[in-house]
């Protein structure tokens, strides 16, 4: 009940912040998401500071105002308190607290004070919370929020409205909640700003079913709690759904997250997701930049290799501006199966997923595992780069299997998708699952979406992990069998053809044969009549 109460209060807070933005002309504005997410994050960091401070100094829980009690401490005592909190908690000064701003909201130029406070928090915590670009620049935690209001005369009132909403309740009692709570909270927070369109590069939200299946197969129950000190990477991370799921499966403190994404918006959302999910230690590994052209993560000069890789890369987009550069000698080893050509009629239909998939294979440690969402056409293409990638996986015996998902698992793209599982340690037995007939179709706005039930998700996971063969659902094949089928990874091509046999009495057999004979006689008569008619027409044509 406590969780439900706080989830409801959290949603009310988010809705009220959106209402304020709408009232000041920022509803559906391109900058609205920056205001909502940053103000929410300011509230979250403030309450996390209070939570940690009270754990270390229990007497603060009895103080009439914990903020005033901390402000009354000596500078040395405050520094010691902050050191005891550890690196996951933002370094805040008394003038950074929400209560301080709340008490000064009638001061002149309050908007400037509000912005200066957020900027000072960002600068003070830059080493922990800043996201880097592939060029080395840092994207700080907070912008100057009031400057998104073009009418300068309304900025003070706007910031007062925001600060008045932040003191209504505290997150302190929910910091011990688990991943599922924060996943729901994050999804609600960004629901209007991160549509699962599948079309724009890294600006879509991977469905829970896909994320859950990927994490549960990469990290099955048998090894949960036993995996530690591993690296998890997503070269097209978006807002981080896949990374959060695998980190949760492994244990947030047992892994380090690495990512790269061309979208600054997505990188900011991923940073927020890491903060909410107790993964602040991985924020320095979050890079905003072009993964294909400028892969950032390295060990020395060589590209870094990872234990686990998850990705839902963009399938098609225009990368004609740097296509030829990728086809150079510098990238030849990474793109071993080739660089896709530029379609003459539709430049934006270039198959960029082929590049991501090769980059992922190249970036995998010996014995590493990966799960990648691919268009289902990839698993059966008879030639070209797709087949070359599949052949590489089979010839190097680094394939775990494929799950072909139902259509419309992504609400706003008609592309059928499959999940490709790569496992450098799997030397025999490739699991292929056809889950295309599972799920329930529902309306999602103007689109149709397929939802898998929990039981269906669990069935896919259990079948794959146990390598079970189930009639018309799953099959386990050898690498040699895959090679013999032109490297096809479609489960249906390996299902047994069923022939039904029936026991008949002699009388039943004779009756069926009589029916067949009668049908054949009728066809022969019809054929003979048609032949006579054609000959007559031809004779008439010759006569004329």
What's the quick description here?
This protein is of the alpha/beta class. The chain contains 18 helices and 15 strands.
Note down, in words, how this protein is organized.
This protein has about 550 residues and is an alpha/beta fold. The protein has three domains: about 1-175, Ferritin (Up-down Bundle), CATH 1.20.1260; about 200-495, Rossmann fold; about 500-544. It is built from 18 helices and 15 strands. The chain has helices at about 1-25, 30-55, 65-70, 75-85, 100-105, 110-125, 125-130, 155-165, 180-190, 210-220, 240-250, 265-275, 325, 355-360, 385-395, 455-465, 480-485, 505-544, and strands at about 130-135, 140, 230-235, 255-260, 285-290, 300, 300-305, 305-310, 365-375, 400-405, 415-425, 430-435, 440-445, 445-450, 475. It has an eleven-stranded mixed sheet with strand order 2-1-5-4-3-8-9-11-10-12-15. Strand 4 (about 255-260), helix 12 (about 265-275) and strand 5 form a beta-alpha-beta unit. Helix 1 (about 1-25) runs parallel beside helix 9 (about 180-190), helix 9 (about 180-190) runs antiparallel to helix 12 (about 265-275) and helix 10 runs parallel beside helix 11 (about 240-250). Residues about 195-205 have low confidence and may be disordered.
């Amino acid at each position: 009940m406590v969780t439900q109460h706080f989830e409801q209060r959290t949603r009310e807070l988010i809705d009220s912040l959106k209402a304020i933005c709408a009232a000041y002309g920022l509803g559906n504005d391109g900058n609205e998401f920056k205001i909502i997410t940053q103000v929410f994050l300011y509230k979250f960091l403030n309450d996390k500071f209070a939570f940690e401070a009270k754990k270390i100094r229990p007497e603060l829980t009895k103080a009439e105002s914990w903020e005033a009690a901390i402000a009354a401490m000596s500078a040395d005592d405050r520094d010691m308190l902050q050191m005891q909190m550890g690196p996951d908690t933002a370094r805040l000064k008394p003038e950074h607290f929400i209560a301080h701003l709340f008490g000064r909201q009638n001061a002149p130029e309050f908007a400037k004070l509000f912005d200066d406070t957020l900027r000072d928090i960002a600068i003070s915590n830059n080493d922990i919370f800043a996201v880097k670009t592939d060029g080395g620049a840092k994207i700080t935690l907070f912008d100057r929020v009031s400057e998104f209001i073009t009418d300068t005369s309304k900025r003070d009132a706007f910031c007062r409205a925001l600060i008045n909403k932040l003191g209504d309740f505290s997150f302190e009692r929910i910091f011990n909640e688990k991943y599922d709570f924060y996943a729901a909270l994050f999804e609600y927070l960004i629901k209007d700003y991160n549509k699962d369109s599948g079309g724009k590069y890294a600006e879509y939200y991977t469905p829970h079913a896909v994320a859950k299946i990927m994490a549960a197969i990469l990290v099955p129950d048998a090894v949960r709690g036993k995996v530690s000190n591993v690296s998890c990477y997503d070269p097209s991370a978006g807002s981080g759904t896949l990374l959060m799921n695998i980190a949760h499966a492994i244990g947030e403190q047992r892994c380090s997250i690495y990512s790269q994404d061309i979208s600054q918006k997505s990188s900011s959302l991923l940073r927020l997701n890491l903060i909410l999910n107790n993964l602040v230690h991985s924020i320095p590994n979050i890079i905003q930049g072009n993964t294909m052209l400028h892969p950032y993560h390295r060990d020395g000069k060589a590209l870094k290799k990872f234990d686990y890789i998850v990705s839902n890369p963009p399938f098609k987009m225009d990368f004609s501006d740097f296509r030829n550069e990728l086809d150079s000698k510098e990238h030849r080893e990474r793109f071993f199966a080739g660089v896709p050509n530029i379609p003459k009629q539709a430049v934006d239909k270039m198959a960029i997923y082929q590049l991501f998939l090769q980059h992922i294979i190249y970036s995998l440690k010996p014995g590493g595992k990966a799960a990648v969402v691919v268009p289902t056409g990839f698993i059966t293409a008879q030639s070209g780069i797709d087949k070359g990638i599949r052949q590489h996986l089979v010839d190097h015996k680094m394939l775990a299997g494929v799950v072909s998902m139902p259509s419309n698992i992504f609400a706003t793209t008609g592309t059928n998708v499959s999940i490709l599982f790569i496992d450098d340690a799997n030397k025999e037995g490739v699991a292929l699952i056809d889950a295309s007939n599972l799920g329930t179709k529902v309306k999602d706005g103007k689109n149709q979406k397929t939802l898998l039930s929990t039981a269906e998700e669990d069935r896919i996971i259990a079948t794959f992990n146990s390598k079970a063969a189930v009639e018309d659902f799953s099959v386990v094949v050898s690498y040699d069998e895959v090679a013999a089928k032109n490297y096809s990874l479609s489960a249906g091509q390996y299902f047994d053809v069923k022939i039904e046999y029936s026991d008949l009495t002699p009388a039943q057999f004779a009756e069926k044969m009589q029916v067949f004979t009668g049908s054949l006689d009728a066809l022969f008569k019809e054929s003979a009549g048609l032949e006579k008619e054609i000959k007559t027409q031809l004779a008439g044509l010759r006569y004329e």
